[in-house]
Amino acid sequence: LFSSANLKNGGRPPLTYQSFVATAGEPPKPVMEKYSELPPIGDTGGYELLPVPKLEELGYGDLSQEYIPPFRGGETEALKRMRESLQDKEWVAKFEKPKGDPSAFLKPATTVLSPYLKFGCLSARYFYHCIQDVYRSTKTHTKPPVSLAGQLLWRDFFYTVSFGTPNFHQMEGNKICKQIPWRENGELFVAWRDGRTGYPWIDAIMIQLRKWGWMHHLARHSVACFLTRGDLVCMIYTIARCILFV
Ligand SMILES: Cc1cc2nc3c(=O)[nH]c(=O)nc-3n(C[C@H](O)[C@H](O)[C@H](O)COP(=O)(O)OP(=O)(O)OC[C@H]3O[C@@H](n4cnc5c(N)ncnc54)[C@H](O)[C@@H]3O)c2cc1C
């Protein structure tokens, strides 16, 4: 969304969402140039062209036997999906991320545009400004961090902090990551990865990830906490909260 967020704030990434939003300001409009023809094959502009991997190399066998996820790839599909989400203006205006149902299966509670954004099928700026167009046509709308536009700000907050923090992708050498003496247990890890923990909610989500390549945000929290904090710790935490706050 933003090209210069890292240059502001003295070159240091803002470490809270609110300070990121205040620093980043309003994202620029998307670049809308149209190209009538593609550059000739072989003209890579000096970049090395990597070969397209074969399906077998990606771990797929006989495609007729494979489960095909419901999300088709490509820009046309991305734009269609975005327009379908945004045509329900009331839904967009009232969007509050924490209130979405992570178990909504046939019609997910969020846009499922993250794979399209990740693979460059959809411009984050274009999506952001289309949301703003919807906001202009509604009387009121929710605000960041829970609003739909606020979700794209989370995305850029993540990229800004990860770009500006050495070793952000790992614990070691990462100054803003809590240092934890992890226990290694390959068997339990594989059970978690393959949806064989015996906890139906956790297993269902991991199977959804394996089959669809996507899961709801709150489902990601569930499986991530289950892996890193353990269900027992979470249960104790929930009971403690009930005792403290009820
Ligand atoms: C443990 C964990 C792992 C995650 N892993 C990824 C990941 O690998 N890739 C990824 O794109 N997002 C990740 N997220 C963030 C978020 O869960 C997904 O972006 C979101 O669920 C994608 O679904 P959607 O497109 O329907 O989101 P929507 O709610 O429709 O949001 C629209 C877009 O905003 C962005 N967005 C929304 N929430 C976040 C967030 N919290 N942080 C950053 N960007 C956000 C995404 O690009 C998303 O497509 C993770 C969150 C958690 C808790």
UniProtKB/TrEMBL annotation:
It comes from the Eukaryota. Keywords: FAD, Flavoprotein. Binds 1 FAD per subunit. GO terms for biological process: circadian regulation of gene expression; entrainment of circadian clock by photoperiod. FAD binds at T110, T111, V112, L113, S114, Q151, L152, L153, W154, R155, D156, F157, F158. Residues 150-233 form the Cryptochrome/DNA photolyase FAD-binding domain. One of its GO terms (cellular component) is cytoplasm. GO terms for molecular function: deoxyribodipyrimidine photo-lyase activity; DNA binding; FAD binding. It holds the Pfam family FAD_binding_7. Its cofactor is FAD. Belongs to the DNA photolyase class-1 family. This is Cryptochrome/DNA photolyase FAD-binding domain-containing protein.
